[in-house]
């Protein structure tokens, strides 16, 4: 079992760090100008082939694997770069790849590989917000009616994978591909805690929708997608946690209290040491999840839940302590540490709460033959 990235993957990481070196400044720029994202940076990312990285070659992609996506997820998370990489590449593209026999999914992957389109997933609805909730949205005669909430990049994405019920789904539901520029789609921006990653509520009024996968397969597809997304998001959280910790260490070395840097106080050292341990624990779980994803092993649900929980704990703790150790300035809009705090809070809830993933881990362990007290 090898937990190291290859030389090629480490070179990809170095390229990503160079490209995203001013990602945090670009996030600030997007906020100041009210932009949905940094279109110029996204074009550079498209030119470098990141959206095509893990799409099969026969569908126009580069045919690389999940480890390359893990590397890129970590580096985009490190700088909070205002681009739809997580939403379009890590979530929507992976959703389409779960329908390998579907010609429509294959054609759409080709569009994503070319970089000419941005996609999102729209599963959550009012009242819960969970991806795996049975949807109230319905499709009748090929037209979708319903409302989806908390849709990441929903204000400007070109199309979405949407969960909805149709008559032939019987007791289940399915996935549908919807053009978000079609008549009948209403986009309403929502104020999320993370101001960099924009969200919207999407209302559909008899909008043409094309089925992805088979009738009634939606629940199973969402379960598989959540496992994959949990591993990728764990790497994004890992990058954010490391950045928040590094920012805090730099600050406490210069911040003075009673005539000496606060980094010299034992209590502060203990806090930073505890954060370092949490980050390293999250890294170990994330690597195990990446291994499970790469090898498509039965342990993937266990590994994904472990990676999700450890990464959420690490990023949340690092972001909260960063605000605290920055003192009063940490609570101001001018401080970058509160941007990491907002992203940590968003990612902690985006795929489901800690309680949800604790239950998923318990169920996965039981299914894998491990007793849970």
Total strands: the figure is 9
Count helical runs.
Answer: 11
Structural class: alpha+beta
Largest sheet, strands/sense/barrel: 7 strands, mixed
> So what's the overall shape?
globular
Strand content: 5-15%
Helix share bin: 40-55%
Mean pLDDT over the residues: 94
Topology as a string of helices (H) and strands (E): HHHHHHEEEEEEEHEEHHHH
C-alpha-based Rg, rounded: 21 Å
N/C terminus separation: 29 Å
Q: Runs with pLDDT <50, length 5+?
A: none
Can you tell me about this structure?
This protein is an alpha+beta fold and 373 residues long. It is 52% helix and 14% strand. It is built from eleven helices and nine strands. Helix 1 runs parallel beside helix 4 (66-79). It is globular, with a radius of gyration of 21 Å. The relative contact order is 0.11. The model has no long low-confidence stretch (mean pLDDT 94).
Characteristic key phrases:
seven-stranded mixed beta sheet; alpha+beta; 14% strand; 52% helix; single chain; two-stranded antiparallel ribbon; 11 helices; 373 residues
């Amino acid at each position: 079992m090898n937990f190291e990235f290859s030389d090629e993957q480490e070179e990809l990481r170095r390229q990503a760090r160079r490209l995203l070196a001013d990602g945090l400044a670009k996030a600030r720029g997007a906020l100041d100008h009210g932009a949905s994202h940094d279109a110029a940076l996204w074009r550079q990312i498209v030119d470098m082939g990141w959206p095509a990285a893990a799409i099969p070659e026969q569908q126009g992609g580069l045919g690389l694997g999940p480890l390359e996506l893990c590397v890129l997820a970590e580096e985009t998370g490190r700088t909070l770069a205002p681009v739809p990489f997580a939403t379009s590449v890590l979530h929507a593209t992976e959703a389409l790849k779960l329908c390998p026999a579907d010609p429509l999914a294959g054609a759409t992957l080709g569009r994503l590989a070319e970089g000419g389109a941005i996609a999102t997933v729209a599963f959550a609805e009012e009242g819960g917000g969970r991806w795996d909730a049975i949807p109230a949205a319905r499709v009748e005669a090929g037209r979708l009616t319903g409302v989806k909430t908390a849709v990441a990049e929903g204000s400007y994405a070109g199309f979405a994978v949407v969960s909805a019920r149709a008559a032939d789904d019987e007791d289940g539901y399915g996935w549908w591909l919807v053009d978000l520029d079609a008549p009948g789609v209403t986009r309403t921006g929502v104020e999320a805690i993370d101001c960099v990653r924009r969200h919207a509520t999407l209302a559909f009024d008899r909008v043409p929708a094309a089925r992805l996968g088979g009738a009634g397969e939606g629940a199973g597809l969402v379960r598989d997608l959540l496992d994959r997304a949990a591993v990728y998001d764990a790497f994004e959280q890992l990058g954010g946690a490391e950045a928040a910790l590094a920012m805090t260490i730099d600050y406490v070395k210069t911040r003075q209290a009673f005539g000496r840097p606060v980094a010299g106080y034992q209590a502060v050292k203990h806090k930073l040491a505890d954060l370092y341990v949490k980050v390293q624990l999250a890294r170990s779980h994330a690597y195990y999840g990446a291994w499970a994803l790469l090898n498509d092993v039965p342990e993937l649900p266990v590994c994904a839940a472990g990676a999700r929980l450890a990464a959420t704990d690490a990023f949340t703790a690092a972001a909260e302590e960063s605000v605290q150790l920055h003192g009063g300035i940490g609570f101001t809009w001018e401080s970058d540490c509160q941007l990491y705090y907002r992203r940590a809070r968003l990612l902690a809830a985006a795929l489901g709460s800690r309680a949800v993933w604790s239950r998923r881990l318990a169920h996965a362990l039981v299914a894998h033959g491990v007793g849970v007290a």
